[in-house]
Amino acid sequence: xxxxxxxxxxxxxSIQNTLAANATGTSTTETAFQVNGNSIAGIAAKVSPVGIxxxxxxxxxxxxxxTLASTGLPFRVRLWGFAKSGGTQxxxxxxxxxxxxxxxxxxxxxxxxxxxxxxxxxxxxxxTSGAFYLDVICQGVAExxxxxxxxxxxxxxxxxxxxxxxxxxxxxxxxxGEPDFNFFVTxxxxxxxxxxxxxxxxxxxxxVG
Length: 209
Description:
Layout (H helix, E strand, L loop, with lengths): L4 E7 L19 E2 L17 E4 L11 H7 L3 E10 L5 E8 L2 H4 L11 E5 L3 E2 L4 E14 L4 E13 L2 E2 L3 E2 L3 E5 L3 E10 L7 E11 L2
Antiparallel strand pairs: 1-14, 2-13, 3-13, 4-8, 4-14, 5-6, 5-7, 5-13, 8-9, 9-10, 9-11, 9-12
C-alpha cells in the first residue's frame, strides 16, 4: 500500500503553529480549532486553515483550482482526534471550507463567509474519552473559466465507535478567482461540563490515488 501524497497538514502540539486543543469547559458554543501563537513574540493564537491550490504547497500552481477543476483530480481531507468528556453529552465535529477573503475575519466562535461541508452529527461521548475520525473526498468542478464549485462525498466518519452514514458534502459554488480550497475544523460539546477538552490530533489534505 502506497503512502498518501500529503499536500498540507496540521498536527496537535503546544508550540507556535501547531493545533491547540479546544478546552471549552462549560461552554456549549461551536468552537474552531486554532493554531498556537507565541506569547513571547506577541503572536496570538488564530484560526489558520489548511489549503490546496496555488499557495502553501511544494510545487507552486501544480494543484491550482483551475487544474483541479479541469481534470476532476480528487483530493482527500482527513481529520482525527479525541474528546475528553466530563459528563453526559454529545460531540459534533464539522469541517468547513472558507474563501480566502474571509480567512482574516475568522475567530474561535465566528465563521462568517465559511461553509460547513461535512459533519459527524451529534454523537454521544458520555463521561468517556472518545476518538473521532472524518474522511472527505473532494473534487473541483469548473463553472466557467474563472469560477469553481467544490463537490464531494463524506466517507468514513466515526465518533466514539458510532459510525456516520456516507453522504454528499454540502457543495460550495461560485468560488470566483480563488487561489485555494481552504479548510478548518470545529467542535461542539452539548453538555458544557468542567474539564471538557477536544483535541484535533491531525488535519491533512492528500491526493487520492
